[in-house]
Amino acid sequence: MIVLDTNYVSLFQYPDSQAAVALHERLVSSTDPEIVTTAVTPREQMRGWLSAIHRQSDVQRQVPYYDRLVGLFRFFADWRILPAALNNQPAHAGRSPRLG
Questions:
Q1: 38: buried, middle or exposed (CB in 10 Å: 19+, 13-18, 0-12)?
Q2: Which of 9, 14, 23, 95 has its CA 20 to 30 A from that of 68?
Q3: Cα 61–75–1 angle (5° rounding)?
Q4: Side-chain half-sphere CA neighbours of 88 within 13 A
Q5: Per-position pLDDT tens, the chain of length 100
């Protein structure tokens, strides 16, 4: 199991970027087919979009941020998301090392 943190998962939201392509190639060459993230990642990203919405007092200016929030939900619908508690497990607890 390869557990990606927010920084790595964020790259996949810009799939044409050089960094996303490089990470994708690295993961494809891995012998481990299970790529996951933890609940921390969608929480961090969701808080960012909610904060952007909150900063806009005009409802019409909030619309693009709500669109991004919906996109975030769709993006994470395809991911396996682990409980955040797994972030605190020692590396020697029988899990594969984190990539992120």
A1: buried
A2: 23
A3: 145
A4: 3
A5: 999 999 999 999 888 999 999 999 999 999 999 999 999 999 999 999 999 999 999 999 999 999 999 999 999 999 999 997 655 554 434 444 454 4
